[in-house]
Amino acid sequence: MTDERSEERGNTVHSYNGDYPLYANRNDTLNAASGRPLRDLSLQKTLTEDISSEDYSISAETLRAQAEIARDAGYPQLAQNLERASELTAVPNETLLEMYEMLRPGRCSFEEYQALARRLRDEFNAAATAAFVEEAATVYRERGLLRRELE
Amino acid sequence: MTTTTATDRSANGDTGSRRFSILAGRDINRETYVEEWAEAGLTVADSPYDPQPSLRIVDGEVVEMDGKERADFDALDRFIADHALDLAVAEEAMATPSHQIARMLVDINVPQPAIRRLADGCTPAKLCEIVRHMNVLEMMMGLGKMRVRKTPANQAHVTNWRENPALLAADAAEAALRGFAEIETTVRVARAAPLNALAILVGSQTSRGGVLTQCAVEEAFGLRLGIKGLTSYAETLSVYGSERSFVDGDDTPWSKAFLASAYASRGIKIRFTSGTGSEALMGYAEQCSMLYLEARCLLITKGAGSQGVQNGSISCIALPEALPGGVRGVLAENLLASMLGLECASGNDALASHSALRKTAKLMLQMIPGTDFICSGYSAIPKQDNMFGGGNFDAEDFDDWTVIQRDMQVNGGIRPVKEADAVAARRQAAQALQAIYAELDFPPIKDEEVEAAALAHSSADMPERDMVADLAAADRFLEGTANLSDVVRALHRSGFEQAAANLLEMGRQRVAGDYLQPSAIFADGFNVISAINDNNDYTGPGTGYRLEGETWDALQRIPQQKSPRDFIDAQVGEPLPNLAEISTAKVGASANEIVVAVGPAYGTSLVKTIGELDHEEVLEALLTGVAEEAFYGRVVRVYHSADCAAIGHAGARLSGSGIAVGLQSRGTTVIQKRGLAPLNNLELFPQSPSLTLEIYQAIGRNAARYAKGLSPLPVGVKVDNGARLRLIVKTALLHRREIEDIREKAPQELYFRWEPDV
Lengths: 151, 758
What we know:
Largest sheet of chain B: 7 strands, mixed
Structural class of chain A: mainly alpha
Strand content of chain B: 5-15%
Number of helices of chain A: 8
Number of strands of chain B: 20
InterPro entries (chain A): Ppandiol/glycerol_DeHydtase_su (IPR003207), Prodiol/glycerol_DeHase__sf_su (IPR036091)
Mean pLDDT of chain A: 89
Number of helices of chain B: 29
Number of strands of chain A: 0
Oligomer: heterodimer
Shape of chain B: elongated
Protein name (chain A): Propanediol dehydratase small subunit PduE
Protein name (chain B): Propanediol/glycerol family dehydratase large subunit
Organism (chain A): Caldilineaceae bacterium SB0661_bin_32
Region (Disordered) (chain A): 1-21
């Protein structure tokens, strides 16, 4: 059915699209965020081995694959979201919550956002998210959504 | 009982209309209705201050949108212009007349992708202009086609006022059994969230693997629960259609988009929340219509890369419903979401009306076309336990819902279940959670709590629990290292192997991320279905989603349904021993006789009326009435017809007095006079279930009085409007049975061995 849809949309068929759902069609090559292969996340292993949260977290690579599937099916914004998500897999939980808090209105100065963008780029290799934060900072500055310093 | 007549009321100085006084007391008049007031944002779909559609693109950048220059854009305009619009198609879309796109929505020959393509290039004002051309029927047509996922589904709320974990697990299990694809809980006390999320996760997976669950709490806290593996989706990412409302919601489109990516990075499905009325309620509608503001919300949702939205006014629903066209406006926003390729959980959530009629009428707008989730939260618990303030439809409406599905052959996403299956699922879920609490050293769940949860309707049926201890355990659980695999192990050790496997499977599916795609849910057996592999291909009759095959079988088989084959057992019995056929009946010579003509099966194949009066006693009563007037009765059986009028007509022709009583086996009776047309008569008693022996006796009496040439007062029978409703199937089957005994044979004289006691 994916072929037919792609034709309707005038797109070319991409390798990943026909693979959806990945669980069924790419089961043997999927890895968790920890690197543990999905086929290795069995009930037996769960009962006998130490399983971390990362073992049942999605990996950056799988998120990129899902982004490709979304883009090919005509959902480019969802694809961009999943690409930013793939970058954010590298960000630790607490840091992720802090970053979200920083982006809420009135929380940071323009410079702090620039620093956040730099950190995303340098520390987490998150170029798309960094650009997104820079864009937010520009709009926040124009619309009075930066932190208001007390006079 | 005392009754007040109009005259009494008038004498008391009460000059108002009795009818209007009764209307004023109806549920529908407990609601608030107001006129539109655009300046206060109290207008649903069309404010005079709404911007007009426009778009100018220079060098790949939007420089004007909906009459506003880029320099004047607020943060929301900016986000929409730079993230939501497909600039490759925008100029074509904006140049296409709005009424033409509206017509495409209704035209079965235009498939979904062709409209989606144009919608992707439309500004908020343009989107509004398109749907303003449409009436609700056209919008429903559009929604049925534009819905993202081909298969419709439903979402449940499972909460309880006492935050009882065993009850949460049991209710989640029942909701899963009933087929809800997603289950959402929330808290009365925020700290309870980790254990509430755990309870519905375990409860649902014990019952049916693959149900997605969430716990609605503050944004950052919600993300924490997801990271811990306790939830698989989140939908309370609220967006608003004006900048100031958005900021009052403590977010911006960028922070919300970041949050969406943060959730996705942990493999959690998200859906934004918007809906008409929220901006007016927050005081910043900026004089715009609710629909225009919602169109902006939807474009922000799309621009942020959320796969879907819950809209349909959600918790603000009473506000649009106070205004003219409010329900149409809500349907319009569902349609806009679907046009933009967003999964739509279409409201029908918070209490929208006191009137059952009004609630149902509104529901049809989403249920008949089908949406991705008909309710963004069907209260699978009684509404007094609904901590969302939801419950427009609740656990007490389950049977109404499943019957409506069966009536219309429409899939509203809820399966009928048997009591024994529901109780078993509830018990098992509560036991599974009890085992986890024991293994993880949470405050114990007692056996009596498990049993109470299995049989409970609401939290009022549950024993007291130490909430303080539960909250302390919830804190420890959230801060501690225990994760999903500890829960899986605890379940497995306690013998809940299938639940352990299902819970682990939820983790494995999270690694694959297939349910991050638009409108993804799990069908039975963890088979993911979404816009990618279950896209809505509706192009008219015979296409798109059809409720048929196994699903239709399952939805039509409600437990209340009986086999009609044994429906008339009570009316079947041994033929009357004292009723014998003698010979072909002749026209009587005596002016003092009344013929009682009975139907072909009377007293033989059938021996009781529909009201379960013995045929023997009915005959006795009729003949007693005749005898009271010093007439005598002859009994004949009519063979050639089972029709009451025909039986009476044949009887009258044989009667020496010219008067007959015609009597069907089910008890329907007529007093007939020779010479009248078959469908005319002296008195007809069609309400056979209401007839008593006293009435039959009075009928006999009146028949004789007519024969005397008197004009008796017609026999009074109370009108029971519900009788036909209750007994129509039985009526049909009794008639069918009588018809089986029809023969090509003249009426026969019967000997009824009985003497009147007069």
